[in-house]
């Protein structure tokens, strides 16, 4: 069947595009190194027209995008909508950057201490996961999406009722690249990773605990090549200790949504705290979310 | 009187040198942009001979150094000594890199969760402050030295009995320069600084709280130029909330030792938590410490 719509998960670091036929079946798909962090201001529309559309034979198709492309560093800012949010709220609130190109809104909710919290893209992934798993649509679910900024979403009876972000992925990246903790080790020293998890405590006093990544080498004789793994464990351990508690859901089983290697690290951290965790594929989830929104919007 | 000894506080970012006469009076002084972070491996000795000594007319003087110059990225590694430590322990444990050049040892103590903690240079500054303030030599004192890595020292009856480090300064620097939180604002928006202090909570859940520095701009309408001040408040607030508690000294008055502007930010953060704080000049303190060690060692 001919393609009917182009859907894209357009995030900070990459763009994943699919064309779908009228039945929602994938006709073509491709990944592009066009994450919004790599784009110059104002460049998104041109790269979309010149590269993404032609590569998929989608010059004339309506298009639905989600993710950081709707932020102030993306194509244009798609306004946030407030939680609680279900799939049809998203479909109703698409932001038209052109007559035939829509961006899904980001979500906003009350965060820590009266501050607001925001996300973009994770709503489509989480609700897409629900679309794939009808059995999870009733009751409460705690979904964690590891990433540059991890997102923990509380879903009740099919609606995202609140969420909480953590700066973990970006903090690991900047410390590994630009601080005294940078080194030539890779992030695959399981023993150092578990030592980092143990050093995370209850997620308190992170500034003090961070220094142990330096002092264990400078004064404790640990190999400097193990610093990345230790740091990864320390940060993930701190995140999984603190975040469910802040949400009042300590001990709730966690659905991990995303790339398998990252989710495995979180599952290990949660397991050591006695929390059950199960992984689901992030790409399948976001595709299901985009497909469902396109269908609700009458594009399929 | 002629100069008798050359003493240097040689840290990560700069080198401060003084020549002293036999009575301990300063003959000459100079600051050099030769912090060990800016030196190539193996370069310290040559720069010392070619630039520091001649600039102060100190070619033939014995020299005493303290600080990061004794670390693995300095001249040579001066072994750590374990707490508790008094001034004469330091003087007894100088590390000779040449017949007439000594480096003060760093200190090591038990840190968080059985890890070790380390410092270099802060011992000389803290004990020098004590040398200048005889009234503080009995009883317990909590001394905080803000910096790239802040150090909180517990002093009892003139001896450093333990200490705890925090990664605060370096974390602020790498986030301000290399993360999504970088921006063109300066760090002098008092309102944003205090909002950051308030957002620090009890120093828990820092990964989640860090994200509010992003979401208050992206979703809350705060000016992006205020991010640096907010971040500074958030990190300092988290440090002053967590560290005294970890040391079991919550509520103890704090002596802040270092540059006035940095210490003022810490004093504000402590004051909001009801903790009394008093500032003392860091440069005068480290000079007094180096002078006292030189005297104990018979160089004066």
Which helices and strands, and how do they pair?
Two copies of one chain form a homodimer.
Chain A: E1 3-10, E2 15-21, E3 26-32, H1 44-55, E4 63-66, E5 81-82, H2 87-92, E6 95-98, E7 101-103, E8 107-110, E9 116-119, H3 122-132, E10 140-145, E11 150-156, E12 159-166, H4 168-178, H5 190-199, H6 206-218, H7 227-246, E13 254-258, H8 260-272, E14 277-281, H9 282-296
Parallel strand pairs in A: 1-4, 4-7, 5-8, 10-13, 13-14
Antiparallel strand pairs in A: 1-2, 2-3, 6-7, 8-9, 10-11, 11-12
Helix pairs in contact in A: 3-9, 4-7, 5-7, 6-7, 7-8
Structural account:
The structure is a homodimer of 300-residue chains. Chain A has 300 residues and is an alpha/beta fold. The first copy, chain A, has two domains: 147 residues, Nucleotidyltransferase, domain 5 (2-Layer Sandwich), CATH 3.30.420.300; 115 residues, 2-keto-3-deoxy-galactonokinase, C-terminal domain (Nucleotidyltransferase, domain 5, 2-Layer Sandwich). The first copy, chain A, has nine helices and 14 strands. Chain A has a six-stranded mixed beta sheet with strand order 3-2-1-4-7-6, with helices on both faces. In chain A, strands 12-11-10-13-14 form a five-stranded mixed beta sheet, sandwiched between helices. In chain A, strands 5-8-9 form a three-stranded mixed beta sheet, with no helix packed on it. In chain A, a hairpin with a 4-residue loop joins strand 10 and strand 11. The first copy, chain A, starts with a strand and ends with a helix. The mean pLDDT of chain A is 96. Chains A and B meet through strand 9, strand 12, helix 4, helix 6 and helix 7 of A and strand 9, strand 12, helix 4, helix 6 and helix 7 of B.
